[in-house]
Amino acid sequence: MARYAATVTSAAALADDTGFAWLMGSATAGGKLRRVILGCRNTTAATAVTDFQCKVGINRVTADGVTITAVTANKLDARHPTAGMRVASGWGTVPTQGAEATDIFSIPFNAKSGVDIPAEWKNFRVRTQRSLVLVFTEIVVNPAASAGRRIKDRLRDSRWRGDARTWGEIYKDSWEAPLSAAA
């Protein structure tokens, strides 16, 4: 899967429920948000960041905006095609987003430290880890009596959100493909 990176810096202090970065599919392509790295800085390098707690929410918008201020999505591998997703740092008319209560999930962090979700995973409370997992997965745990005792058998009906195939189907395909290719 091709991977891309984009950096967005807000030029001003942000108020509650203020959008400052958007990642959107286009008419012909979609994608997945795989990593979020957040931090705070002052507009001048000589001024230290004040110590305070921040929270950034990841939110699905309900309507597209008008007049995009585009940000370049850089290829992490030069062999991949140009990104099909759109990245924006602003709009003439911003997309319609829900209030804080409608965020898919929130990322709390301290202004002096920042956060990198994959790197910080082990430091998150179990409740936070579970809420992040639920964003990306649909977990179905079958009873041991009907599915067997091995965890791969008990989770076979689970799937990544947006994926039509279950983990059991993907696992089965990964074992059958080499056999059918050799025939």
Structural class: alpha+beta
User: How far is the first residue's CA from the last residue's CA?
Assistant: 28 Å
The total count of strands amounts to 13
Biggest sheet statistics: 3 strands, antiparallel
List the uncertain runs. 177-183
Secondary-structure element order, as H and E? EEEEEEEEEEEHHEHHEH
Number of domains: 2
Instruction: Report Rg.
Output: 20 Å
In DSSP terms, counting alpha (H) and pi (I) runs of 4 or more, how many helices? Answer: 5
Report on the structure:
- The chain has 183 residues and is of the alpha+beta class.
- It folds into 2 domains: 4-121, no CATH class; 139-183, no CATH class.
- Helix content is 21%, strand content 25%.
- The strands form 6 sheets. A 3-stranded antiparallel β-sheet has the order 2-8-6, with no helix packed on it. Strands 1-7 form a two-stranded antiparallel sheet. It has a two-stranded antiparallel ribbon with strand order 3-11.
- The radius of gyration is 20 Å and the shape is globular.
Question: Could you write a compact summary of the structure shown?
Answer:
The protein is of the alpha+beta class and about 180 residues long. It has five helices and 13 strands. The chain is about 20% helix and about 25% strand.
